[in-house]
Amino acid sequence: MRVIPPCFKVLYISSRIQTMSTRSRKRVAGNAAAASVGGIVSEDGAKKATKSRKPVKIEFEADTNAEALESVAVPSNRGEDAASVKSENTDDLKESSEILKSEEITADNSSDTATTTPTKKKKTKPVPVKVEPPSNWKTILENIRTMRSTKTAAVDTMGCERTADLTMEPKVQRFQTLVSLMLSSQTKDQVTFAAMERLKARGLTVQSMLDIEEAELGQLLTPVGFYKRKATYIKKTAEILRKTYADDIPATVDDLMSLPGVGPKMAYICMTAAWNENVGIGVDTHVHRIANRLNWTGKGGTSDPEKTRVALESWMPKDLWQEINIMLVGFGQETCLPIGPKCHSCLNKDICPASNVKAKKKAKPKNPTTP
Asked: Where in the sequence does UniProt note compositional bias of the Basic and acidic residues kind (predicted)?
């Protein structure tokens, strides 16, 4: 029999002790992790198999997280890439997130009774500012108007202003416009329009939204971004309109914003589209992006759409407020894209501060050859 020298015995025993120690530490860490997810640890330290808690699917996350969404990245018919969709939707997500944080309405599914009156939101209006626009803003605006004269953007035929059934009575049309705006956040115009067609085919009135089951409504809205949450909002809004507004919609920005799921952008556009009242500029992600690219929002730009609205309204003539939203939205959908703007085909390529088209340097004249 081979005799193992004492020194090797010591090394062997030492390595075994270290191995056992490492295993013990891993077992303790595993037990702690098991306990945190509802596992049961036996006396000998072995984790028993138990029914783990299912992960909760979060529909709205932090202000700047743009990808924990339900069908938000809906591809358009222009083949925009995922990065473009993400950038385009980020600002709308901020608004949606802020709406969630400010609402006090209980959405507990275990409750049999729904809250029909929204609590007052804490409003933090941007501080009024005075912005000096670039001296050439009229030239830039006229060039954009020229480029938009063909009206071939999605917003021109499928925007929220185009979704109401004109054969219905005025207050039903106003309700349909409001619903369309509620669906538009985080959703392409094409997808919103298709969802509105499905809703109208079933019957889109306050009464029909009171009668429909929330699950069925959600199915009709799919694949609208946040369709489950928006189905809840629409149901609650219908209850509020029946109780407080006789099936009509509110006629002021503040009252519109008191409805669940309605933010500033939706409220200002609704005042224009539903009530034909020019009370403010509807600023969405396109308007926010383009206004900052053109230096229309002052030195340093603005960080969110509401600040952009205040900046624009400080200098832009009021008779342009109604026109500017659709003009810039369509321009943003076709030319001034969030990723890879088509500056080469833009009439403002030589005067836009954000243009990626550099003026070609004049070639230096060649020295005449000497005889």
From this structure: 78-104
Catalytic entry in 94, 230, 236, 265: 265
Average pLDDT of the chain to the nearest whole number: 77
265 assigned to active site: yes
How far is 312 from 288, CA to CA, in rounded Å?
Answer: 10
144 in Cβ contact with 328 (< 8 Å): yes
**DSSP conformational letter for 344:** G
For residue range 117-143, what is the model confidence (pLDDT) as tens digits? 444 444 556 667 789 989 999 999 999
Cα 321 to chain center, whole Å?
22
Output the pTM of the full model. Answer: 0.68
The Cα 148–Cα 309 span in angstroms is 21
Class level of CATH domain 82-106+137-345: mainly alpha
pLDDT tens by residue, 331-354: 999 999 999 999 999 999 999 999
In b/e form, how buried is each residue of 312-323, taking b as 16+ CB within 10 angstroms? Answer: bbeebeeeebbe
User: Is 46 in contact with 24 (CB distance < 8 Å)?
Assistant: no
pLDDT (tens digit per residue) in 194-213: 999 999 999 999 999 999 99
